[in-house]
Amino acid sequence: MSGDDEDLSAFLKGFGFDEEELNAVSDELDSFRMIPGTTIERYMNRVINTIEEEDRHAFLKGILVGVAIRKAVEALEQPDLTEEEARINREIEKLGFRG
After folding, report:
1. pTM, two decimal places
2. Same domain, 7 and 46
3. Which end of the chain is more exposed for a tag (fewer CB within 10 A), N or C?
């Protein structure tokens, strides 16, 4: 298990998931991913096809939470702007162009 996997496992355990649950889901998802020729679309289709109709709403929420977590991690990993970049941003804002 890599350091990232251990961090994720500890994070999820903090929300009440136990080791058995995490391993079962991880093993199932790994089995879908290991099929030769798997693309992200095929992977998602395989996963979605195993979800009961009444669980689709919860699954979608899980995807959206995962995306939000990923965006937060990426934001933390972005280096601070250099003084020159900050100056350019201020000039752009003065011109009325906001990102």
Report:
1. 0.56
2. yes
3. C
